């Protein structure tokens, strides 16, 4: 007896609780959507200011994570939390004062009289009468009217209003979605780097002794304001030398070593960061010495052979010039450079160089040699002067005066 009334009461409360949980879930989804739209709009602003404030993406990601976790956690907690029927009954009685605690009393008293052992303090007839009265009161109520959905509707309208401009932005700039999510997923990407990487050019080189060498450094990561070029050698008692490097902009620096006389090791230094070490090897280029010229005049002239020390020579046209010189080191190739771009090869025998040419015209020449490493000498320009071979000249030595003869004298 009274079971139908109590079942109807329990069903009413269950419907109430179900609607309450549904509205709570919808409210949480609306708030989550509003939060996402606001974070998306904030992300567009962060994209514009991150160049001026590199820490903005990190702060944005932290704020977004806190807000989303808070709202989603709050929504899941309210939606999944068990709502007791007693709480629902008290909530309904608070909204409907005319129930006068009938709902909560019926909910609590009927289980007592339904048990086998009834309490003498509770009158079953009064409880049943209370159930019937409560049943009539609940039939006059509607679950939809007990729960105010105005706040959920307002949040839904706000979500719709905010969605329209966001859709317009995405329509005209689809990449904005990926850029904003990129800020959330990789907030450290735009942080200023704390490490400096230095790359040098050249990475080790051989140069002729006395050459000028320019070393360039390119910094990446945290770009330093200044940089030094450190030079040192393996010689004992020689301290390292520091050359300030000129800033060229865009992380590039340059330093010039004038008239390098010995092999050096070098690296670039910017604060605690250093480049790898490399070596500049100073190599002596070949040099030409002991230049000797043997001049062979044409045979018909009867003139003797001449030997000349040095490179400048003067001879009769048609003479043969034989050149011989010594190199300061072994060379791989050598040649004589003449005017008008003409070249004559030199014969190489160890450090001895030999070559020959015929004097046909006045001109200048140079001796150019190259060693196995590709280093060349600094050629000196020499002069060849050619004298033309004139016609024979006859001179009468005697008699030196005019004579009168009869015709039978011998002169």
Descriptive account of the structure:
The protein has 411 residues and is an alpha+beta fold. The protein folds into three domains: 3-185, no CATH class; 196-283, Immunoglobulins (Immunoglobulin-like, Sandwich); 291-387, Immunoglobulin-like. Helix content is 36%, strand content 27%. The strands form four sheets. Strands 2, 4, 5, 8, 9 and 10 form a six-stranded mixed sheet that branches. It has a five-stranded antiparallel sheet with strand order 12-11-14-18-17, with no helix packed on it. It is rod-shaped.
**Count of DSSP strands:** 20
Main beta-sheet annotation = 6 strands, mixed
The shape is rod-shaped
**Can you tell me the residue ranges where pLDDT is under 50 for at least 5 consecutive residues?**
none
User: Structural class of the secondary structure composition?
Assistant: alpha+beta
Distance between the termini: 189 Å
The ordered H/E elements are HHHHHHHHEEEEEEEEEEEEEEEEEEEE
The number of helical elements comes to 8
Beta-strand residue percentage? 25-35%
The mean pLDDT is 88
The gyration radius over C-alpha positions equals 54 Å
What is the count of distinct domains?
3
């Amino acid at each position: 007896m009274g079971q139908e009334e109590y079942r109807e009461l329990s069903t009413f409360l269950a419907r109430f609780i179900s609607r309450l949980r549904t509205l709570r879930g919808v409210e949480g989804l609306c708030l989550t959507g509003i939060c996402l739209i606001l974070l998306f709009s904030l992300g567009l602003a962060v994209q514009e200011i991150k160049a001026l404030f590199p820490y903005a993406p990190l702060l944005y990601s932290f704020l977004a994570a806190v807000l989303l976790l808070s709202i989603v956690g709050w929504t899941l907690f309210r939606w999944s939390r068990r709502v007791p029927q007693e709480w629902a009954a008290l909530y309904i009685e608070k909204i409907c004062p005319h129930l006068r605690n009938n709902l909560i009393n019926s909910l609590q008293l009927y289980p007592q009289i339904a048990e086998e052992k009834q309490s003498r303090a509770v009158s079953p007839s009064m409880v049943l009468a209370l159930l019937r009265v409560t049943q009539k009161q609940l039939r006059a109520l509607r679950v939809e009217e007990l729960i105010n959905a105005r706040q959920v509707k307002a949040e839904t309208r706000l979500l719709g209003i905010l969605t329209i401009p966001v859709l317009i932005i995405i329509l005209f700039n689809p990449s904005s979605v990926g850029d904003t999510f990129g800020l959330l997923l990789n907030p450290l990407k735009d942080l200023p780097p704390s490490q400096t990487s230095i790359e040098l050019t050249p990475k080790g080189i051989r140069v002729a002794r006395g050459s000028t060498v320019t070393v360039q450094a390119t910094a990446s990561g945290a770009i330093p304001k200044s940089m030094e070029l450190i030079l040192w050698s393996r010689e004992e008692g020689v301290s390292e030398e520091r050359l300030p490097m000129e800033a060229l902009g865009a992380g590039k620096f340059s330093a010039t070593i004038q008239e390098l006389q010995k092999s050096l090791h070098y690296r670039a230094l910017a604060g605690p960061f250093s480049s790898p070490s490399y070596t500049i090897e100073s190599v002596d280029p070949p040099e030409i010495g002991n230049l000797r010229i043997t001049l062979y005049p044409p045979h018909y002239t009867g003139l003797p052979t001449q030997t000349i020390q040095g490179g400048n020579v003067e001879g009769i046209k048609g003479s043969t010039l034989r050149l011989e010189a010594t190199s300061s080191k072994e060379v791989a190739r050598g040649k004589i450079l003449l005017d008008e771009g003409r070249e004559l090869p030199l014969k190489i025998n160890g450090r001895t160089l030999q070559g020959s040419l015929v004097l046909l015209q006045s001109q200048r020449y140079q001796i150019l040699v190259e060693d196995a490493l590709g280093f060349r000498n600094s050629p000196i320009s020499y002069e060849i002067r050619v004298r033309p071979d004139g016609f024979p000249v006859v001179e009468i030595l005697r008699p030196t005066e005019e004579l009168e003869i009869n015709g039978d004298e011998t002169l």
